[in-house]
Each structure stands twice: as C-alpha cells, then as structure tokens.
Design a protein that fits this description.
8 strands; six-stranded mixed beta sheet; 307 residues
C-alpha cells in the first residue's frame, strides 16, 4: 500500500520572486533517429544538460509521450529500481544499449506525495521499461552519465487541464533544484509525415518538398503561445491550442502534446509572470514533423558549480 507523503510547503508568492528557480524545458523528441543523427536540436539538448550539471541539479523529473495509464484521475510514477530499455528502431544499438539508467526512487516518492496532496490518484509503477522518448533525451543531454531521474506518466484520457495541473503540483520541485522536462512534440503527426527518404535511405532530415501549410501554421501557434504568454496566461494559451483549427492536422493523436501542457503547469504560476518561453533550436524531420525546443526561465547568472 502506498503511503501519502506530506506536501512540500510553498513560500508566499512574494518570496518566490527572490527564490532561485530551475528552468523548465519542452523538448520535441521527434523520431527515433534523433538519437542517432546529429542535429541542431541534439546540440541544444547537450547544452541544456551541461548547464544543469554545472548548476548541481538534484535530479530530473520528466513526462514523456509514450507511457500512459488508464483510469479516472490516475497517474503513475516510475519506481522500477532496475529498469530496462525498450528497443529503438532505426538506431544502432551502440547508441543506447550500454547507457546506464538511474531511477530516482526517493524523488519518485516525493512526486507521489506532491501529486497525491493535489488530489491525483497516483500510484507507483515498479515494472516500467523505459521508452525512447525519455532516455533519448537523457542520452543526448547527459551522454557521460544519467542523473537521478523520475518519470511521470500521462493519463490516456489526454485532458490538457489534467496534465497542466500535474505540472502545477510538481512546480515546487523547481525550488529544490530539480530540472522539469516535458518531451513530446510541437508538430507530431505520424500519419502525415513523408516516410520515403527515411525508409529508403535512412535520411530523416530529407526535405524534398517544404512542410505543408498546416504544419507551419501550428508550429507558429506553439511558438506564439510560449513566447508571448507567462504565468496563468501561459497555461491558458497552451491548453487552448488543442482547439486550434490545425491541431488535429499537427497531432494525429493527443499523446505528444500532453508534455507541453505539463510544462505550462510547471512554469505558469503567478510567480512566473514575466518569464516567457524561448525557442532555442528547431529541427524538421520527415517533411512535416517539427521538433521545436523551448526553454522557460534560466539559470541564475551567479550560480556556481556544485561540488
């Protein structure tokens, strides 16, 4: 039986402005080939990892797109002490098989406590096999060693407000030097990608024709929502995008967008007013898949490397 942990106390809003907060990342992980091929996005992921290590993070809290649980109000937290990796298509095994995963069970229990205190039906999952959407990002960010990591599931009802509230519940961890990441996709519709160059030539970056108008329009809508809103307005903007006329074109299924609203929850409180998202890198794949990389917030310029 799971025990409920006390919620980490929050300081008054006036204190949050003076408090150091870790940045939050929304990463579009793209196809599996993003693990094996070099790109501007991969370079940015590595830069973010270097900065996180230089600032002595306690660990990583990450929500991906490929692990979802069913049940009303239910979330799961990865608590497998010895997770394996699911195989990755189109990537040579040498790129990932020997990378040692480091699950953070103590921080997992902390996440369970925070989510439970906010009314989520949250459970430990002690058998999860980690999937490429999370360990692809970890390998690219931290190629030498994996920091302690906790994975949060999605809920397969894919309610954006539900996932936004999950990010909100975990926001206090930013005050404790945890790095919160959502890994999904800005434009990620497998049904509308152009697969020929990848299947014939293993070239996921071939752009024989420009992206279609719907992909460009929704990509711009995501950037506008993140770059032009902060605080609660950011949360509203990101959840509202699921009503955009091109949302279903850009997302054939809802799973890869939940990471975006999770991030908006973690970086969209009243204390985050004035801190907007920044588009830091972008990689188009398969003609119509847009892998945009966003960061909300930044590391304190006066921070020092942990000893």
């Amino acid at each position: 039986m799971l025990t409920k942990h006390p919620r980490i106390p929050s300081l008054p809003a006036s204190h949050h402005f003076a408090m150091s907060l870790t940045p939050v990342h929304f990463f579009s992980h793209g196809s599996t080939m993003m693990l094996g091929e070099e790109s501007e996005s991969a370079d940015y992921w590595k830069k973010c990892g270097d900065e996180a290590l230089a600032n002595g993070i306690k660990g990583v809290i990450i929500m991906g797109a490929h692990w979802g649980c069913s049940g009303k109000n239910r979330l799961e937290v990865a608590m497998n002490p010895h997770p394996t990796k699911s195989p990755v298509a189109y990537v040579h095994p040498s790129k990932y098989v020997d990378y040692e995963l480091v699950p953070d069970l103590d921080s997992g229990r902390k996440c369970i406590g925070l989510l439970s205190a906010e009314g989520f039906d949250v459970h430990a999952n002690e058998t999860l096999e980690w999937i490429h959407d999370t360990y692809l990002i970890l390998i690219r960010m931290f190629p030498d060693w994996c920091p302690p990591t906790t994975i949060i599931s999605t809920n397969v009802q894919y309610d954006p407000h539900f996932h936004m509230r999950a990010g909100t519940a975990l926001r206090p961890l930013r005050e404790q030097n945890y790095l919160i990441i959502g890994t999904g996709g800005a434009v990620h519709n497998l049904y509308r990608n152009v697969w020929g160059p990848m299947l014939r030539y293993s070239d996921n970056f071939a752009q024989e024709t420009p992206p279609e108008r719907w992909a460009l329009d929704f990509r711009q809508a995501v950037e506008d929502a993140l770059a032009n809103n902060s605080g609660p307005a950011l949360r509203r903007a990101m959840t509202r995008l699921m009503k955009h006329p091109h949302f279903r074109d850009a997302h054939g299924t809802d799973d890869h967008y939940m990471a975006a609203v999770f991030v908006a929850g973690a970086a969209g409180s009243e204390a985050d007013l004035g801190t907007t998202g920044r588009l830091m890198a972008e990689t188009w794949e398969l003609t119509n898949m847009c892998n945009s990389q966003f960061t909300i917030g930044q590391w304190p310029k006066t921070s020092q490397t942990a000893t």
